[in-house]
Design goal:
Layout (H helix, E strand, L loop, with lengths): L1 E3 L5 H11 L14 H10 L1 E7 L2 E11 L2 E9 L8 H15 L4 E7 L5 H7 L3 E7 L11 E8 L1
Parallel strand pairs: 4-5
Antiparallel strand pairs: 1-2, 2-3, 3-4, 5-7, 6-7
Helix pairs in contact: 1-2
């Protein structure tokens, strides 16, 4: 069942995101997100979650920005990956944004995650620019974001 996350989900979201982003340990040593950051995201935007009996299996963060929207922090419990849950969460995010009147959906992927641009291209996203990686995050190697956009 996909639903909107509530404040009471913040701790579980933080844990899920950090487990899912362990794959990025090759270029960053810190946790992907802290509880205060999760709470800030919940204040600025919306998390959609895939929850089964109050256990969150996946999430995606959405921020509405006029006729554009942004999604990020797509996270699937590592034990449940490869079951198309990620694609379901992306489809739910796209539907949510479309229903909110957005015409475009943007994502940012780290250039070092070579598997991500081809994955998102298959889902209709195209490269639309680049941006700097946050300066306050210490990385093991230089990196930047690739912005990808899909018309809704």
């Amino acid at each position: 069942m996909i639903r909107r996350a509530e404040q009471s989900d913040a701790q579980a979201l933080t844990q899920l995101i950090n487990r899912a982003f362990q794959v990025e340990k090759f270029f960053i040593d810190t946790e992907r997100i802290t509880l205060p950051q999760t709470l800030e995201y919940l204040h600025k935007g919306v998390f959609l979650v895939n929850a089964e009996e109050d256990v969150i299996a996946a999430c995606v963060y959405i921020e509405l920005r006029g006729d554009r929207a942004y999604f990020g922090l797509l996270s699937v419990d590592p034990d449940r990956q490869r079951a198309a849950i990620g694609k379901q969460m992306i489809a739910a995010a796209e539907s949510f944004c479309r229903d909110a009147g957005c015409r475009f959906l943007d994502i940012l992927v780290v250039n070092l995650r070579l598997e991500l641009p081809p994955y998102y291209r298959k889902l209709g996203y195209g490269e639309s620019g680049t941006s700097e990686f946050p300066a306050d995050v210490v990385t093991k190697m230089p990196c930047h974001f690739i912005q990808m956009t899909k018309a809704l």
